[in-house]
From TrEMBL:
Gene it is expressed from: yjiB_6
Alphabetical list of InterPro entries matching this protein: Cyt_P450, Cyt_P450_B, Cyt_P450_CS, Cyt_P450_sf
Descriptive protein name: Putative cytochrome P450 YjiB
Pfam family, one: p450
Protein family: Belongs to the cytochrome P450 family.
């Protein structure tokens, strides 16, 4: 069987793509839950239980890049196995704990206000471009001590990294709305080098200073490790959260009754965010033959369901499928902002569980609280068609104009 045609069709309206993905996955969970995708020469899994198995068994299903992969994320913890993964991740775990992140709330609130206030008088805005894109970039840049006035450049750079790594070269270069010039990429690297240099001379209480003084096996991190950390946090921390915020609007636009429930009881926001994450996961989990974000490589021949996975073969997750698996979620098609428990896999599972989950959750919560307070009567502009993000890695909308 071939991949269905909708799979790589970024011209479909986002919710239509999502519906087709859900329907196809529901069939695959029954008929071929462990399926070999010949086009991408990789296995794709559909059932929740198999996702858990693969993500728990990191010795058999490695996160290191597949041998044929030219992976720019190779030095990132996302593409590492224990023991090095544990050593490096533990360096930054304290900075991303729920407790440390909670202390950022006033700053995130301030940035949200700065972004929203000038828009309030206008009575309309594009939620993605004017709120969901800049907010997470400014927050993570602040945490890294990286100048954030350049957030549009950081956004373009992220798009280029995600786009190059997921689509064919030709397609991605045509698609990028504003391709980065070599010169702009150099500017970003120079700024990164400058920030690292500066922090080396004048350490502060921030993540970068922590990394600069850290030792693993008695050695400081190499420059490659430092850059990889920096880029991982800058990239992983922005586009996914952007999509979560955009997807929240999409959910409430589709389910106005849920918005009314939230207005009546704003304390439901954190639980509602989990349901948004379950139903419209920002990570698409559809990448090609690559291991990055949710992909794994078998380190030995292994039986999964009734299929034999060979050593060296890639196994890809399908987050949407796992999140709608009826064996895990009662009435999975129902959007229920009170759903509890809600063990969705949108942040992954196991040792690579998203480091930034508390941060993404807090940003989304602050945005929702501000909306409930400042624009409770918002409406989506229905005449403007919504466009999908063109990436095999993330799922969401590129635009979402509202009026209030
Ligand atoms: C809604 C927003 C987000 C989603 C849906 C998301 C999703 C994910 C997923 C699925 C993984 C696991 C990948 C795997 O198992 O291969 C992951 C890992 C990771 N995420 Fe997130 N992420 C989000 C926000 C963030 C933020 C805000 C940050 C940081 C500032 C971040 C940093 C990371 C890092 C560093 C890893 C690698 C962890 C490791 O390998 O141990 N993420 N994320």
């Amino acid at each position: 069987m071939q991949l269905p045609s909708f799979f790589n069709d970024f011209t479909l309206p986002p919710l239509e793509w999502h519906q087709q993905m859900r329907e196809w996955s529901a069939t695959m969970r029954v008929t071929e839950p462990v399926w070999f995708d010949e086009q991408n020469e990789s296995w794709r899994i559909f059932r929740y239980a198999d996702h858990i198995r693969v993500q728990n068994d990191y010795a058999t299903f490695s996160s290191a890049p597949a041998p044929h992969e030219n992976n720019e994320a190779a030095n990132s913890i996302i593409a590492m196995d224990p023991p090095r993964h544990r050593q490096l991740r533990s360096l930054v775990t304290p900075a991303f704990s729920a407790r440390s992140i909670a202390q950022l709330a006033p700053r995130i609130e301030e940035i949200t206000q700065e972004l929203l206030q000038p828009l309030l008088v206008q009575g309309q805005m594009d939620v993605v471009a004017q709120l969901a894109v800049p907010l997470p970039i400014i927050v993570i840049a602040d945490m890294l001590g990286f100048p954030h006035e350049n957030w549009p450049l950081i956004k373009q750079w992220t798009d280029a990294l995600l786009s190059d790594s997921s689509l064919g070269q030709e397609e991605s270069s045509q698609d990028l709305e504003m391709p980065l010039t070599q010169e702009q990429v150099m500017i970003l690297y120079e700024k990164m080098a400058h920030t690292i240099d500066e922090r080396r001379r004048h350490p502060r209480q921030d993540i970068l200073s922590l990394l600069l003084t850290a030792e693993v096996d008695g050695e400081h991190l190499s420059d490659d490790d430092l850059y990889a950390f920096f880029i991982t946090l800058l990239v992983a921390g922005n586009v996914t959260t952007t999509q979560l915020i955009g997807n929240a609007f999409l959910c409430f636009d589709q389910h106005p009754d849920a918005w009314q429930q939230l207005r009546q009881d704003p304390s439901l926001a954190p639980v509602a965010i989990e349901e948004i994450l379950r139903c419209l996961p920002p990570n698409r989990g559809t990448g090609g033959a690559r291991t990055i974000i949710g992909g794994r490589v078998a380190t030995t021949d292994v039986q999964l369901g009734d299929q034999l996975i060979r050593k060296g073969q890639v196994v890809k997750v399908t987050t949407i499928s796992a999140n709608f698996d009826e064996a895990q979620f009662p009435d999975p098609l129902r959007f229920d902002i009170r759903r509890n428990p809600n063990r969705h896999l949108s942040f992954g599972h196991g040792i690579h569980f998203c480091l930034g989950a508390p941060l993404a959750r807090l940003e989304a919560k602050i945005v929702l609280e501000n909306l409930l307070r400042l624009l409770p009567e918002w409406r989506r502009y229905k005449d403007v068609p919504l466009r999908q993000v063109r990436s095999n890695i993330v799922f969401g909308v590129r635009n979402l104009p509202i009026t209030f």
